[in-house]
Please model this.
Amino acid sequence: MDQRLDPDPANYAFAYQLLANPDGPLARAVHALTDGGVRLTRRDIESLGCDAPAPGAATIEKAQGLVAQTQMQVEGFQDMVTAMRAETKDFGRDLAASAQAMRSSGGDGLEISRLTATMLERVRTAEERLESANREASELRTKLEEARDNARKDPLTGLPNRRAFEEAYAAQAGAGARICMAVCDVDHFKSVNDRFGHVVGDRVLKALGEALSDTCKGHLVARYGGEEFVVLFTGLDLKGAREVLDRARLAVSAKRYRLRETDAPLGEITFSAGLSPAQQGEVFGTVFHRADQLCYAAKNGGRNCVRVD
Model:
């Protein structure tokens, strides 16, 4: 394929994806774009979601596939609508011509019967196309909803991610709700990875996410990044939020984690947290920075504790 693209990593990655799956959705989308000799541009490649893949980018690749499939369905839907319009236009022209011919000849039962049969066939064809279009639209909505969900979900823990958390804060703050924000950080997490490996470290993060979600039911728990989790307490004052967060901290530290492969004890897992109430009109970054600094103070003050404003 001679597209005269620059020899950079993103374009090599794009070419590799095409060659690795020549019959896949991405290849079909590219074929549709280049039909008739049109060359791809960098903007086209970006629109298909084909930047250079990062290590372990299974989620990104899935999103790229969704982009390509969605684009193909949109193009197919547009083609179908265009064909239906042409069919309707032709039907109207034929109907007018037949009516004129009947008026000129005085008309007869056979001509009326033929015209009626033509009308019924055209209506049946239009109904089938509309039904197919409805199915396409339904599938498209499902895929777009899946893409939106994936964009707001942490792939490891299944919890909302940073983007979803910040959007939730904006929505609650805009509604004038009472808000407290907690920033939680796993204690000595680096040593867990160093001693047992990243696979075990990932299990610890998943377990911690589940424990926080179970204990903080009714409030939004998200993975903010790395070993850092955040909790958005809504409708609670600082005292109430601290009580819930302390219960979560005690529940996590009371668990006795073991290695799945050998049943050997993993040791105590704890987290430190900072908790701060949001004042009316405060933007997300201000509240987060305050809670984050309190979390650092908790870690420097001995860990496995909660510091509040």
Observations:
- The CA atoms of residues 62 and 234 lie 33 Å apart.
- DSSP finds ten helices and seven strands in the chain.
